[in-house]
Structure formats: C-alpha cells, structure tokens
Specification:
The chain has 222 residues and is of the alpha+beta class. The protein has 4 helices and 12 strands, in the order αβαβββααββββββββ. The strands form 2 sheets. Strands 1, 2, 3, 4, 5, 6, 7, 10 and 12 form a 9-stranded antiparallel sheet that branches. The protein has a 3-stranded antiparallel sheet with strand order 9-8-11, with no helix packed on it. β8 and β9 (170-178) form a beta hairpin. The radius of gyration is 17 Å and the shape is globular.
Length: 222
C-alpha cells in the first residue's frame, strides 16, 4: 500500500515519554504530498454541507445527526471520510490498516483486541475543563493528527497537565508540555488517572479551520 511504509517508520521511531503521562509526538506524520492534498480538500469543506457531515456535537447537549435546524449550533463537526473527498477515503484506508494499529499499540505495550477508525473533526467551539479521557469506557488510546493549513494558530493545541492540590484544598493544574497546533503533527496519549490535558477555550472559530484526524481505539470486550 502506498505510503504505508512511511507511516509505519514514523510510528516505530516514536519515543514514548512518561512525563507527565504516557504519550508520544510525531512531526511530519503524513507524507508531504498526501498532507497537502488533504488540507486542500479540507479547505473546501463547508460547515453546513449536510451531505458530507456525519454528526455534530452541540455544547452541553450532546451529539446529533445534522439537520438544517441544528447545524448552526454545531460546536464540533465530524465529516464522513467516504463522502467528503477521495483523499479522505485514501487517508482512512491507510490509517485503518491493521499494521498501523499494531505499530501504535506496540509503542505502549498494549496487546488488547480493539476497534477504531479515523474521523475528520472540525472544532468551532471548545470549552473543556482539564480531563483524562477516562470517561470514555474502554478507551485504550487517543490518537490525533493536526491538519491546519498553516502554523498561524499554534496556540490551539493540546496542553498536557499535572494535577496538584492548591493550598491543600482546590485542584490545580500545571502545564508540563504543550503540543502546538501546527501542520502534520501527530500525538497519542494513553488514558489513565493521571492523563490530564486540555485545550484552551475556542469561541466561534469560523475564519480558520481547526481540523484534526482523530482515531480512538476501544477494547472489543469491556
């Protein structure tokens, strides 16, 4: 398969850091030509094309099938990888390859049987408190590839946190590492009781596409 060896090489060379919790970061994750075609296709996707939008998330209300009545409320949009553009289908076939999953799992020593696939997610509003992803039952790994067209909004990336007690009363969080929202950078975290992370709030981001490829792997039996 075209590009598979490149992807596998990138994953196999990734170094897992344990600070502040198990994760890795990969720069230039996708081959340059494939990434360029991907972001060019992303740029043509609108926020109201019901034919290619798979689902939306409305803040504090949950996930919904998109309709003419609710699409303007979407804080997060998930596109159908097989209805958007041919390059999205190409990327999904590549990332869904079992060798890619096994390579990612090997970095963390995970042997569980799992399911998961890629999604193209666009975030317009983000209002998340620090969280661990442990609320997702059976989630083994959270893997994302940032897909901006340029590095002008690098501050929109995820921050890896350490939790502590402020004045022995309130929970506090210290940023130990920031993963910038820049082109073609991938990151993966292994959820645990200590995997605290957040993204700074985003409000009505319509002049720049905060697009990401997201893969979440869940245990088959939970």
């Amino acid at each position: 398969m075209k590009h598979l060896e490149y992807i596998l090489s990138k994953i196999n060379k990734a170094m897992v850091s344990k600070t502040p919790f198990d994760h890795f970061i990969i720069h230039d994750f996708l081959p340059e030509d494939l990434y360029k075609r991907l972001v060019q296709a992303n740029d043509k996707l609108t926020n109201d094309n019901l034919k290619v939008i798979q689902k939306i998330e409305i803040h504090n209300d949950g996930e919904f099938k998109p309709t003419l009545e609710n699409i303007h409320k979407a804080g997060t949009i998930t596109y159908n990888m097989y209805k958007a553009d041919s390059v999205h289908e190409e990327v999904d076939i590549l990332l869904s390859n079992v060798q890619v999953k096994e390579a990612i799992f090997n970095r963390f020593g995970i042997t569980d049987e799992a399911k998961g696939g890629s999604e193209l997610v666009r975030e317009i509003n983000i209002d998340l408190l620090p969280h661990t992803d442990m609320n997702h039952k059976g989630l083994l790994l959270n893997f994302q590839v940032y897909c901006p067209i340029d590095d002008s909004h690098s501050n929109l990336g995820v921050k890896l946190l350490k939790k502590f007690k402020a004045f022995n009363v309130m929970d506090g969080y210290m940023t130990l590492k920031s993963i910038p929202y820049i082109p073609n950078i991938a990151w993966c975290i292994k959820p645990s009781e200590n995997s605290w992370h957040k993204v700074d709030p985003i409000k009505d981001l319509t002049d720049f596409n905060r697009d990401s490829l997201m893969m979440r792997y869940y245990k088959l039996t939970i």
